[in-house]
Amino acid sequence: MEWFQIPLGPLQTNCYILAQENGKCLIVDPGEESKKLIDYIQNKKLQPEAVVLTHAHFDHIGAVDQVREHYSIPVYVHEKEADWLTDPALNGSQYFMGGQHIKGKPADHFFSSEGDIAVGSFTFAVFETPGHSPGSVSLYFKDHGVAVAGDALFKGSIGRTDLPGGDHQQLLNSIHNKLLVLPEETSVLPGHGPVTTVGDEMDGNPYLNGF
């Protein structure tokens, strides 16, 4: 499996394309700039099978409907954020986008618990990693040593917890109990900024010291 990081929108939210050798791919967190994203996928000659959301804040969902409709594919999100795609107050666009509200269609499928899941031709583990938002999840591709962490864990930092539904201690618990227990060489693909590893964050992330 290959993965490609595509920063999108004014907040440079990382969208990830996870692709198999046969060209099938998943789209994780298409935050904005749908044309740029679709052109990228077309140029790579990939065939999307689904959109998967680590959470449903506005900067991670802005291109969901355009991508879903272009490829006729389903959208997955945690059930605790089932209403966020359709509600600008819940997804934050009402407060942070200068009057530009994001109000799309509901997701097609909902994560309700942790564990292995099959989405199209992909199989991966879903970890509930709340704290940044109530329905935040991380996607772990064990055979490939990759964890897509959304806005839970960044290189040298952690997700903000001052938004509605955020909880600082819950986020620290999520990181320590779900992400830092993975093999140290695991690549952590964050929602913003550069890729890191579990080992690097265990050793050098100042927000995790003294937990």
UniProtKB/TrEMBL annotation:
Xref: InterPro entries: MBL_Glyoxalase_II (IPR051453), Metallo-B-lactamas (IPR001279), RibonucZ/Hydroxyglut_hydro (IPR036866)
Needed co-factor(s): Zn(2+)
Pfam families per the UniProt record, alphabetical: Lactamase_B
Residue stretches in coiled coil: none
Domain of life: Bacteria
GO MF, one example: hydrolase activity
Keywords of the record: Hydrolase, Metal-binding, Zinc
Metallo-beta-lactamase domain: residues covered: 12-192
CDD domains reported in the protein's UniProt record: metallo-hydrolase-like_MBL-fold
Protein's name in the database: Metallo-beta-lactamase domain-containing protein
Organism annotation: Mesobacillus campisalis
Phylogenetic placement of the source organism: Bacteria, Bacillati, Bacillota, Bacilli, Bacillales
